[in-house]
Amino acid sequence: MASTTKRVGEPTRIDALAGAVELDETSAEGGTVDAVKLVLKDGAVAHVRGAAERDGKHWRFETDIEPSEEVVRAVELIELDQTLEQGSAVHVRVQPKAWLDLCEFSRLGEGSTDAESAQPSDIAADDQVGRALSIGVRSPSAFAVTIEEG
């Protein structure tokens, strides 16, 4: 999974399967960090593509994850208990498995008995898989934050 050093207050677009992305240094108040809040940009906050298999059935999927306007677009990671000091690096690791944990891909239709012939499924924001992805991308378990001392 990819990690990125995050510049506070600026949006960052990352490829979760690519290598680490480093951003310019920035200043921040030092001390104990007990929480981090990640704010998800309006519109599509993630794009997922993959395949699922269960009981010999296969589904392919590709969609943008767009949480509805009614939901909070922030992820709060608490109980970190780490220290930020001169030269520290903050790493945010994306853990997309958490995005998929609640998805019931069998609700996308019959599926295929052959992985190669499985057709991509349409995922609507208001079906079970679309709602599960919207919830999963905002889950605290979808991200891990660590601080590396400088």
Could you outline the blueprint of secondary structure elements for this entry?
Blueprint: E1 3-5, E2 31-39, E3 46-54, E4 57-65, E5 74-84, E6 89-94, H1 97-100, E7 120-121, H2 128-136, E8 143-148
Parallel strand pairs: 4-7
Antiparallel strand pairs: 1-6, 2-5, 3-4, 6-8
Distinctive features:
150 residues; mainly beta; three-stranded antiparallel sheet; three-stranded mixed sheet; 2 helices; 8 strands
Give a structural overview.
This protein is mainly β and 150 residues long. It has 2 helices and 8 strands. The protein has a 3-stranded antiparallel sheet with strand order 1-6-8, with no helix packed on it. The mean pLDDT is 83.
Number of H/I helices:
2
Order of helices and strands: EEEEEEHEHE
Low-confidence stretches: none
Shape: elongated
